[in-house]
Amino acid sequence: MRMFKKFPDDFFVYTYIRFFIVSPWYYKYLYTLSPRKRYFSTGIAGVLISLLLVHILTPTVAASTWTQTSDSDFGAGTNTSVRVNGTGASASVVLNGGTFTKRRTVTIDNSTVNGTYITKWGSQGSGNGQFNQPQGVAIDSSGNVYVTDLQNSRVQKFTSSGTYVTQWGSYGSGNGQFYYPYGITVDSADNVYVTDSSDGSSRVQKFTSSGTYVTQWGSYGTGNGQFHNPYGITVDSADNVYVVDRYNNRIQKFTSSGTYVAQWGGNGGRVMDSLCSQQELL
To answer: Is it the case that residue 22 has pLDDT exceeding 90?
Structure first.
């Protein structure tokens, strides 16, 4: 169990009053000491004050199951997006999208987010359920898992427990083929988008959840809708598609059918290999 303590506003007011009242007497006392003792006393006081301020002004909390234990206007429940905004007297706890600035104590049970091992699957190879440099991973609304298998030029689909379901793709530039499938994402209708990252096949391909080819867009170049090694890919709540155009140092936005919408970025350092997750983007 982890505790986060939000002190009442009065605590900080009284702390500041005491500090400013006591400090003149403290400094007057310091000047009665020898230089050596004065230096030592000042150093000890500084350390104690620093520790107090760090304890008060830097609350942190992990996202997990929470139980609010003191105020009666908000009872126990579960939440997966608990966070702290601000520091000191202005700090607030955000639970389930609402901001509560008058919480005194929030108890966090982070037993479900400690990285407990569950299962694994895969091994080196080209058979069903094997991989040769797996790269991107995405999950659909049913919890099925899609993995881009780079050197095997394919996408593999699994259940959430790792049971092999199906695969699609082979080496080439035709519809449904890949040179180097890298990024992958799934939209609200469980359509699957895959970036094919090579100079010879810089494109995005769209498939159904069973691997049926739907459409594609992109070619090698620097123009709108073209790519130079597309890498990361994700979608937003409206199923717009965002693609990291790695060597063109930009991000491009498209509709779900591949129509170019916008772009941003430029030279100034290589774009990160993968976009943030959809949850972070929204």
So the answer is: no
